[in-house]
């Protein structure tokens, strides 16, 4: 796929050069070293900043890691005790369920709306760039602040959302975040709001990479807008879509600060996710071992997801 | 400095460099790893070299003493700075104040403990003392030389764990019933003293957008703090959440909701939200604490009164929770520094400093003499002073298990209030959850 | 869709359409911005608390702003400096790696991509906890450089994944051609690959900036004094253990969004101009 669609401008130069690469074999060894040089700093950085904490987190889940540990440095191994505690807790199952609903719901909303906006902003109109960049503004607001603002907007009695809906005679005091059956939905809604700019910007960047010639050809063939979207935009955008979804998944599944700011996991644990559970275990109860277990479950879930990503990548490479 | 300082962090330093770049990526790259490591090492080396130039090593400055608290907001920070300036002059030492957001204080202190960079004086919420004391992170105050002169028995208990005194309170606070005088007068309603009266009053005061009462049933410590006076005054106990007495207290809260005199948003509110609602005139009464006085007094048109929290039956004792922060001496292992830390605490809890602090913050001084002076100065706050005298500490009975019980309890009352479960079933489940870890 | 610009439609019709799009764009923006408007609205009516705010501020009260400006000025500068430093570190480290993973056929490259993805899952607080001990021993606590490094870590895995996805589509032939012309690997990278990937570089840089700008965890963890205090920490000047001065908080948030918003508008111009988009215009 990718060979047929590579930017037209660069293809001619490329053709002529194919036969001229024989001295490369001699340089292979030096080459490899130089090549690793490109990658090594990032790998070292990630090992420092993520690899080490990750390993520590895994080890911690098999230890009795309590406040005492911080003072004595001793964290005796306790086998599967932490795992048993966590899996034995009724909350774990429901938190896992909430996490999945939250992730799927958020991703669907963010991606759908983000893609629609990205396509919309390909149109040429005045102030396009300014509007497009201002949409990123919600990102600049600290979560502790936007959490409070949203809490007030969604308040059942005094919230502006309900008074706005009231203007149309609907939404009679909807308990957005004060009812266990609606709270998860509302939190997803706010998270979609937060995630749209990210999705839009990346997808818009991807759309810009698609050669205009393809659209011209489609227009000449008289393809409908929907058909053009399905047979040119979507397939061409696939690598970027995968990236957006994977990164979105990774940051959504572990969500913590938004939920803490909005509902604190409540009411009645209805917005309790694995993220808030690990927070409660580690930083409220100070049972760091149990917190690490939940953290590891999260990491495991995303490892599975990462494998899918790599699979998707491999099929693209051909 | 001494090897004790270097030890744990130095060991971690080596682990960083030799750990595989990431768990899963390690094996497949084993062959080329030596080269990678060489490059990584040089990168790390460069970073370290850069950092040595950039900043000096993090060790305790022998001349500077630090106080870690959660007074991030401007006014509390300023009051503490003033007190510390006085103490600094008095003791001839340099004192530094570090403030971190309240929710992060515990973790921050633990992290500092692991790198042996604990502050000298650590201000904790009293309910956090057991967790730290149990971990061996605190030095007993009497051992360090903190004076308990003129400190009441209950205040000592408040900062104690397993019979040892760890936390010296400067002031204590509690919950009380705040009411809007104008609204009550207009409706011709007396300040309620019993549950029935409060329920009737709340019903009568509910009108249009205004609710009769506001309280916090939020899913965090705020909500549990507010539930305790109802639970305790009714004879309930945190060691037995499944008891009838606790369920009755919860049913009482539910009755306020079903009467429509309490907003359903109560399950989302923190105590600060409750105060906002009260100030905006959306609630005629509220359960809250004296730390709101500063904010309440900014509105000159708001006339409010304070009463003790109503009790189940007339004549019973109103048992409210005792709250507030305490000053502890962190176990730094250096007895000389700890002795100085004790002197700082003695200065901060001296009658004069305590009174100033208490007047500023609206809380009741812990020192008995200072409390008398405070009472004389603020007769209108006597309900709070009365409530403090009978107030009960959350951790006295359950110690470092309090956070677990608190989590179970908040989940239970939220389930009952939102109709997800009946009071008794929810509380039974909470009791099981609270004791499962034992 | 994009076809609109290709159709030989009449100029006036095209213009009308573009004004219609502008109107639609503004509506979208208004919906997306509403919570921010509400923030501004609250900031302008500090007296009202957060409960009783009117739809529009009836009397403007800038006291929240003047207070926030005088309190947070330095913190804003710190935020800018740290975020900018983090972007530089992030791109310098991530771009070569993304290129290597996309174009070199290295054994184990796949595992590195996998590892990079997994890093996204390590909870921030776990990283912060581990880093603190390491930073103490390296003397990086309370230093600008230390916070920049840590904040860069928020963007690096993301930047690698993003740029790699873009760089995979650079035709091998282009790179080989440059090398045949005698350019070394580094020169090829700097003179051919980077300009071609300008689009993704700026996008990655932008997000690295936003990640660093909104960081709270590292700023809190890796500082024990007020020496390096970004605005996310500074805002706590108005939020205490018991009380919150929400008018000032909102004002500070609005203020802190302004410099970053200007940067966003500037960067956005480049984001639009991709390789192909640029050649067509």
From TrEMBL, chain A:
UniProt-annotated stretches for the region Disordered: 1-26
Membrane topology annotation: Multi-pass membrane protein
Biased composition (Low complexity): 1-17
Domain of life from the UniProt record: Bacteria
ABC transmembrane type-1 domain mapped to chain residues: 96-309
InterPro entries membership: MetI-like (IPR000515), MetI-like_sf (IPR035906)
Pfam (any one): BPD_transp_1
Gene3D superfamilies referenced in this protein's UniProt entry, alphabetically: MetI-like
Keywords, ordered alphabetically: Cell membrane, Membrane, Transmembrane, Transmembrane helix, Transport
Subcellular location(s) of the protein: Cell membrane
Membrane-crossing segments per the record: 36-55, 100-121, 133-153, 182-204, 240-263, 283-310
Homology family: Belongs to the binding-protein-dependent transport system permease family.
Protein name: Sugar ABC transporter permease
TrEMBL record, chain B:
Highest taxon, organism lineage: Bacteria
Compositional bias (Basic residues): 1-10
Region named Disordered: 1-32
Keywords: Signal, Transport
Family: Belongs to the bacterial solute-binding protein 1 family.
Protein name, UniProt field: Sugar ABC transporter substrate-binding protein
Species, as recorded: Streptomyces polyasparticus
From TrEMBL, chain C:
Sequence intervals crossing the membrane: 21-40, 76-99, 111-132, 144-163, 201-222, 246-267
Pfam families: BPD_transp_1
Taxonomic lineage of the native organism: Bacteria, Bacillati, Actinomycetota, Actinomycetes, Kitasatosporales
Assigned protein family: Belongs to the binding-protein-dependent transport system permease family.
Membrane topology value: Multi-pass membrane protein
Ranges where the ABC transmembrane type-1 domain occurs: 76-267
The keyword Ubl conjugation is annotated on this UniProt entry: no
Stretches of the chain forming a coiled coil according to its record: none
Subcellular location: Cell membrane
UniProt entry keywords in alphabetical sequence: Cell membrane, Membrane, Transmembrane, Transmembrane helix, Transport
Identification of the protein by name: Carbohydrate ABC transporter permease
């Amino acid at each position: 796929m990718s060979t047929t669609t590579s930017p037209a401008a660069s293809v001619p130069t490329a053709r002529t050069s194919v036969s001229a690469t024989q001295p490369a074999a001699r340089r292979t060894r030096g080459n490899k070293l130089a090549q690793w040089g490109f990658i090594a700093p990032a790998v070292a950085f990630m090992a420092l900043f993520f690899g080490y904490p990750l390993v520590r987190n895994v080890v911690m889940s098999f230890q009795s890691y309590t406040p005492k540990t911080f003072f004595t440095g001793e964290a005796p191994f306790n086998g599967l005790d932490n795992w048993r505690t966590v899996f034995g807790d009724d909350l774990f199952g429901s938190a896992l369920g909430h996490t999945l609903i939250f992730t799927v719901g958020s991703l669907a909303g963010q991606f759908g709306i983000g893609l629609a906006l990205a396509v919309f902003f390909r149109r040429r109109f005045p102030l396009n760039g300014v509007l497009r960049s201002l949409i990123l503004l919600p990102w600049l607001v600290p979560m502790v602040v936007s959490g409070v603002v949203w809490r007030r907007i969604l308040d059942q009695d005094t919230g502006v959302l309900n008074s706005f809906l009231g203007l149309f005679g609907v939404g009679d005091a909807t308990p957005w975040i004060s009812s266990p059956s609606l709270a998860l939905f509302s939190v997803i809604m706010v998270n979609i709001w937060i995630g749209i700019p990210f999705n839009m910007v990346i997808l818009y960047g991807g759309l810009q990479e698609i050669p205009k010639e393809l659209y011209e050809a489609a227009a000449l063939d008289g393809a409908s807008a929907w058909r053009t979207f399905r047979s040119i935009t979507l397939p061409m955008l696939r690598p970027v879509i995968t990236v957006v979804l994977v990164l979105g998944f990774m940051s959504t599944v572990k969500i913590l600060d938004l939920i803490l700011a909005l509902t604190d996991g409540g009411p009645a644990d209805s917005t309790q996710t694995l993220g808030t559970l690990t927070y409660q275990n580690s930083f409220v109860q100070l049972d760091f071992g149990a917190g690490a277990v939940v953290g590891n479950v999260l990491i495991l879930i995303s490892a599975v997801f990462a494998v899918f990503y790599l699979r998707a990548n491999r099929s693209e490479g051909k | 400095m001494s090897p004790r300082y270097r030890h744990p962090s130095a060991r971690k330093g080596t682990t960083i460099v030799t750990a595989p770049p990431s768990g899963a990526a390690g094996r497949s790259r084993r062959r080329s790893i030596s080269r990678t490591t060489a490059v990584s090492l040089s990168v790390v080396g460069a970073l370290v070299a850069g950092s040595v130039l950039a900043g000096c090593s993090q060790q305790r400055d022998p001349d500077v003493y630090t106080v870690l608290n959660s007074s991030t907001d401007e006014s509390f920070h300023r009051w503490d700075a003033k007190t510390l300036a006085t103490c600094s002059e008095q003791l001839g030492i340099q004192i530094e104040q570090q403030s971190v957001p309240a929710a992060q204080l515990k973790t921050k202190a633990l992290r500092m403990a692991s790198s042996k960079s604990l502050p000298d004086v650590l201000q904790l919420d009293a309910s956090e003392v057991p967790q730290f004391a149990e971990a061996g992170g605190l030095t007993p105050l009497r051992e360090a030389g903190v004076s308990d002169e003129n400190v009441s028995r209950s205040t000592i208990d408040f900062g104690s764990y397993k019979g040892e005194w760890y936390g010296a309170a400067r002031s204590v606070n509690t919950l009380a019933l705040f009411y809007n005088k104008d609204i009550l007068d207009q409706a011709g309603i007396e300040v309620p003293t019993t549950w029935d009266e409060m329920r009737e009053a709340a019903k009568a005061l509910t009108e249009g957008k205004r609710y009769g009462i506001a309280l916090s049933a939020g899913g965090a410590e705020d909500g549990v703090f507010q539930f305790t006076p109802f639970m305790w005054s009714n004879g309930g106990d945190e060691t037995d959440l499944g008891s009838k007495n606790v369920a009755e207290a919860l049913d009482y809260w539910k009755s306020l909701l079903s009467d429509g005199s309490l907003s359903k948003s109560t399950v989302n509110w923190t105590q600060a939200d409750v105060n906002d609602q009260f100030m905006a005139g959306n609630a005629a009464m509220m359960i809250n604490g004296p730390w709101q006085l500063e904010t309440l007094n900014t509105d000159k048109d708001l006339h409010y009164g304070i009463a003790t929290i109503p009790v189940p039956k007339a004549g019973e004792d109103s048992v409210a929770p005792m709250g507030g922060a305490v000053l502890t001496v962190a176990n730094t292992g250096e007895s000389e520094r700890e002795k100085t830390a004790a002197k700082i605490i003695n200065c901060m809890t001296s009658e004069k400093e305590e009174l100033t602090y208490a007047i500023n913050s609206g809380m009741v001084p812990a020192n008995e003499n200072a409390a008398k002076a405070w009472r004389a100065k603020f007769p209108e706050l006597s309900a709070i002073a009365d409530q403090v005298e009978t107030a009960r500490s959350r951790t006295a009975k359950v110690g470092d298990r309090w956070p677990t019980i608190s989590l179970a309890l908040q989940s239970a009352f939220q389930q009952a209030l939102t109709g997800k479960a009946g009071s008794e079933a929810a509380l039974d489940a909470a009791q099981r959850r609270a004791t499962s870890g034992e | 869709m994009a076809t609109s610009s290709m159709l030989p439609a009449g100029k006036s019709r095209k213009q009308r359409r573009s004004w219609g799009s502008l109107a639609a764009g503004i509506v979208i923006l208004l919906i997306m911005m509403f919570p921010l408007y509400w923030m501004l609205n609250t900031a302008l009516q500090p007296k009202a608390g957060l409960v009783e705010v009117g739809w529009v501020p009836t009397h403007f009260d800038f006291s929240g702003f003047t207070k926030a400006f005088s309190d947070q000025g330095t913190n804003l500068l710190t935020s800018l400096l740290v975020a900018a430093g983090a972007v530089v570190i992030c791109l310098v480290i991530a771009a070569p790696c993304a290129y290597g993973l996309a174009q070199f056929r290295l054994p184990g490259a796949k595992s590195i991509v996998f590892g990079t993805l997994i890093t996204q899952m390590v909870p921030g607080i776990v990283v912060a906890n581990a880093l603190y001990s390491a930073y103490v021993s390296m003397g990086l606590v309370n230093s600008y450089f230390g916070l920049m490094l840590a904040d860069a870590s928020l963007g690096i895995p993301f930047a690698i994944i993003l740029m790699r996805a873009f760089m995979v589509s650079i035709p091998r032939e282009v790179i080989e051609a440059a090398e045949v012309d005698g350019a070394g690997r580094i020169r090829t990278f700097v003179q051919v690959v980077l300009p071609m990937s300008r689009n993704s570089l700026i996008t990655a840089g932008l997000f690295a900036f936003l990640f660093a700008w909104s960081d709270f965890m590292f700023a809190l963890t890796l500082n024990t004094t007020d020496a390096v205090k970004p605005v996310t920490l500074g805002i706590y000047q108005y939020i205490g253990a018991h009380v919150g001065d929400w008018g000032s908080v909102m004002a500070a948030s609005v203020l802190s969004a302004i410099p970053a918003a200007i940067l966003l508008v500037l960067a956005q111009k480049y984001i639009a101009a991709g390789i192909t988009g640029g050649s067509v215009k």
